[in-house]
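Render this sequence as a predicted structure.
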Amino acid sequence: MATRPLNVLFLCTHNAARSILAEALLNALGGGRVRAYSAGSSPRPNQQPNPLGLTALREAGIATEGLRSKSWDEFAVPGAPEMDLIITVCDSAAGEACPVWPGHPATAHWGYPDPSAGDAPDAVKLEAFRQTLQRLRARLLRLLELPLEQLDRDTLQQRVRALAHEEGAA
């Protein structure tokens, strides 16, 4: 791809849970080979990262400073970081019409249930966030095993899409 880190954007509808977890986790695991970002197709007004997600990240020893919910529009304007890979992590965002991304990045969908959904007590939801974080970690570690620096766009897309179907990464 290039001598710079691989830029990866994780998308979800509100950018409050799964995409935030993926951004923080990949930045922690990536060792400088990648730079992860997250955004939402339609974050609510004054949307913030889910506090239970931030708790799960902190419990796992992952920094949460600077994490914020934001619109995907921030990444489709001139001067925004050019993405190499865009991964949707919720089914509703995967079905939406995305902006035209500068550079035409590789794309993939890794669906995860929303750990914040429903009326369960916070303790149950926190466990759902922990489980989502574990599932993301398994898949992101597989991503980092790839020779990212050597893959062209089409091969990267093919390999990352294949990770969505691997046993143990879901």
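Summary. DSSP finds five helices and four strands in the chain. The chain has one domain: 6-161.
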